[in-house]
Amino acid sequence: MKIAIASGKGGTGKTTVAVNLALSLSGAANITLYDCDVEAPNDELFLKSNIEKATAVEVMIPEIDEASCIKCGKCAEICKFHSFAIFKKMEKLLFFPNMCHSCGACVEICPVKCIKEGSKKIGEITIGKKNNLRVISGKLSTGEILAPVIIKRMLRDIKDNEFSIIDASPGTSCSVVQSIRFADKCILVTEPTPFGLYDLKLAVELLRKLDKQFGIIINKSENENNIIDDYCEKENIKIFGRIPFDENIARMYSKGELLISNKKYKNIFTEMIEKIL
Amino acid sequence: MKQITVISGKGGTGKTTLSSSFAVLNEKSVIADCDVDAPDLHLLLKPQIVETLDFNQGVTYKIDYTKCSLCYHCLYFCRFDALKKSEDGKIYIDEYNCEKCGFCASICVKKAIYTITEKSGESYFAKTDYGPMSFARLNPGAENSGKLVTVVRNKAEEIAKTENIDLIIIDGPPGKGCPVIASVSNVDAVIIVTEPTVSGISDFSGVAELTKQFNIKTFVIVNKSDINIEKTNEIIKFCADNNIEYLGNIHYDKLIVEAVNNGMPIVKYADNEVTAQIKNIWKKIKFI
Question: Which of A10, A236, B24, B31 has minimal CB crowding within 10 Å?
Fold first, then answer.
């Protein structure tokens, strides 16, 4: 069973749900947690696992031999990502490495073969252990744009029969699609505000398009008939659980403490698991 | 004309609450919501849409089987494992893996790979009580959010010029990837809204590194500062050590959520300690 956690709106509690759920589940089985929010990975701040391995994520990047370049502009023409700019009159070719998607088309098309390829680090993947929990965490380097490449690499060897939690980034973009594509079930974490509801609807639209099974966790929930409950009832969406609005939770979160370290909150996750599985 | 972008790294720290308040306090600005994935600013500023434009960047690569000679040349060149051979020998495209680089189409000798382009979002130009607004919505799961951010910003700049408005307030997306880079490139200042939590600090340092790399003047606001005073002080110290100007803090107040629930910017909804803090911060921003 592979369970993905997504949200639409940011800051609704994906990390809280992911780390507490993964740790609760790991009491009974071997669990892998993938932190695919590679632009802002925070799961390890709470888990502090024992990092066993760190691997650089590298992509191929063109290296241009200026001397043999004839400024024909074919590379600029073929590149769909606008990584090249050609100024024929000035006999100048500019290359913008941060735009490059490493497809290799420029290398192939260059008539004088003046483009070779080197490699560039765009991020890092770490693998950590905490008892029965394996934590795979991706991190995009600052200034880089290829977040989906890191996510793809993290999930490359995911198995059909493994038990895992996949923590996605907020929003509904291509990074989220890459993170949840292998999931058997998704959890959308939201909060009972108009922002939470509006962004939840967009996330639901995405999950329905991808034909995913899903349910909802309402965070900062004050009562059982808020705007999210109304929406879920109307749309026939299952509510997996709710995390109460509680200043103590906010304080624990601020310090990087796990909610399941407190007996009262631990039960919330135990009950949630029953509904999710 | 000046452009100021509000970002945060971590989501949910208060970007939209503050952007909407700044729009109210400045009375007349061009307002741009660049969180095209999950745009929320319109829920507070209640814009009246004047113009809607299609964003046609949804490119899909297809194979014309009447032309394909099954040479499998494309399989060899595709670096993204997007072209695959099915059991009957036919080539198909794995949508999830396709990077839309077009390499396969350009090397196909039979010209059997073609594209279809579909609408993948919309951009809007609207009027609000606080000035013109440019915003957009990307279809869920669509790509090219960075390009749509640029569409929103170009429209905002165009309006600022024609209507002679000297400030563009940009509400940015969370994270620090492609759409964030598109939201902060070439602006006059970036305001990072963070919160005193381990996640807030970690993600704040990530975007601070980004604005440093891009050489953009950066300012910091700590929201919900009283939730963890120790961590708030940690952020203030980080700012001092890294030459980032700290603008001030905003206390945690349930009225902020209440204002959102009532669809109003907090500075219009209430007049209390937190709105005084926001107004003080705004006074400093005005002189950026």
Answer: A236
Q: pLDDT digit string (tens) for A77-135?
A: 999 999 999 998 888 999 999 899 999 999 999 999 999 999 999 999 999 999 999 99
Task: Tell which residue, A135, A119, A163, A169, has the closest CA to residue A47.
Answer: A135
Chain B, 122-141: which have a CB under 8 Å from a chain A CB? 138, 140-141
Residues of A in contact with B228 (CB under 8 A): 251, 254-255
Neighbours of B82 (CB within 10 A): 21
* A254 contact residues in B (CB cutoff 8 A): 195-198, 200, 227-228, 231
Task: Give the amino acid at A187.
Answer: I
First to last CA, chain B: 12
Interface size A-B, in CB pairs within 8 Å, comes to 181
The reported pLDDT for the residue numbered B186 is: 95
Query: B141 and A15: CB-CB below 8 Å?
Result: no
The β-bridge partners of A181 are none
The secondary structure of B188-219 as a DSSP string is SEEEEEE-SSHHHHHHHHHHHHHHHHTT--EE
Residues of chain B with Cβ-Cβ distance to A101 below 8 Å are: 99, 101
Q: Determine the topology of domain B2-56+121-286 in CATH.
A: Rossmann fold (3.40.50)
The domain over range A2-58+122-276 is classified in CATH as 3.40.80.10: no
Q: Is A123 on the interface with B (CB under 8 A)?
A: no
* Spatial contact of B140 and A116, defined as CB atoms under 8 Å apart: no
CATH of region B58-118: 3.30.70.20
